[in-house]
Amino acid sequence: MGIPEEESQTVSVDPVALTADLIRCPSVTPEEGGALTLLERVLSEAGFTCTRVDRNGTSNLFARWGVRGANRSFGFNGHTDVVPVGDEAAWTVPPFGAVEKDGMLWGRGATDMKSGVAAFAAAAVDFVTETPPDGAVILAITGDEEGDATDGTVALLDWMRDNGEAMTDCLVGEPTCPNRMGEMMKIGRRGSLTAWFEVTGVQGHSAYPHRAKNPLPALARLMDRLASHELDRGTDHFDASTLAIVTMDTGNPATNVIPAACRGTVNIRFSDAHSGASLTSWLEAEAADVAAEFGVRIAVRVKVSGESFLTPPGALSDMVARAVSAETGVTPELSTSGGTSDARFVKDHCPVVEFGLVGQTMHAVDERVSIAEIRQLKSIYSRILRDYFA
């Protein structure tokens, strides 16, 4: 598996072999698939204290080398669950085969993010074995990042709080580079909010519209008002917030019937100029105005998946950027772009940044990762650990 048998006390983990072993675990959310069991064995053999923190059917792993409550505890966070393979017939390789060809390692989770987990696990094992640090190294690995994320990293952080465990700084190993290794790290993320609107009028015959109360014009007006509104023009570290209409539905198969109700949904990715609460208030006010204008009822339901957050540029981001530059020759851009990640939960626990591989094929058919870049990522993580505990 990940650890070769050796006579010496030095334990070294090959991150490519470990990535391949993890890919062979069919850990489609919410299935553990053997991935965390494998990591628990690898880490335990290297002297980490491992605890399974499973909650509500979700599998999670906490691993610590060093003493609890150490003054310095550097943490890595990541996930072993993956999205479904989709149409398996469209793959040119077995999705869980971990095939090596053309300098790439192929399979579901190769990029997002079994390679990242393997790289930081390998770096952590080598580091604590070769240079036992004055402090603790913590790995918090979940099986619930690609799902609802309610019992994954959140459960780990809850358990850590209740058991006196803490990270002083954390790096999330998600893919962060758009095109080439080293070009981008994340120091924050936009917030994410989804709003569902149900407009209710009065059904009637399309030949006698005055006898009905058509909900469709109201929905169209509301969607136009929301999509036409400029939320902001960006802030110091965030691009402008965006609102996308993602669906408008009536479910009406008849051309001579005005429907009684219709529905629309929008998704907002927002900067630190807003909060989930402020956007919810705006959406509700817009819906109320349109409802009054058209004489219909509009019900609003909002789910905030995560608030925007920022780890201000400073010691942590500087250290990671130096390590990336030293190993790749590229100075990473400090970015807050992209979707949500589990860093949105970690930021309430300790300062957090994200750095990982090129993410071009994540969630795609024939997902794959550069073998050379897996090794390079381990080197970056190893340098970060050395610098942190220097």
In brief:
The protein is built from nine helices and 19 strands.
What does this structure look like?
The protein is an alpha+beta fold. It is 31% helix and 24% strand. It has 9 helices and 19 strands. The strands form 6 sheets. It has a 6-stranded mixed sheet with strand order 1-2-6-3-7-18, sandwiched between helices. Strands 12-14-10-15 form a 4-stranded antiparallel sheet, with helices on one face. A hairpin with a 2-residue loop joins strand 4 and strand 5.
Work out the helicity level: 25-40%
Quick one: biggest sheet?
6 strands, mixed
Number of helices: 9
Residue windows where pLDDT falls under 50 for at least 5 positions: 1-9
| Strand neighbour order, sheet with most strands | 1-2-6-3-7-18
Shape, per Cα inertia axes: elongated
The count of DSSP E runs of length 2 or more, i.e. the number of strands, is 19
Q: What is the average per-residue confidence, as pLDDT, rounded to a whole number?
A: 95
In percent terms, what proportion of residues is strand? 15-25%
Jot down its keywords.
six-stranded mixed sheet; 390 residues; four-stranded antiparallel sheet; 19 strands; disordered N terminus
Outline the secondary-structure elements:
Blueprint: H1 15-23, H2 35-45, E1 49-52, E2 60-65, E3 73-79, E4 99-101, E5 104-106, H3 110-130, E6 136-142, H4 153-162, E7 169-172, E8 184-186, E9 188-189, E10 191-200, E11 204-205, H5 215-228, E12 242-249, E13 257-258, E14 261-270, H6 276-294, E15 297-306, E16 309-310, H7 315-328, E17 333-335, H8 343-346, E18 352-354, E19 368-370, H9 371-388
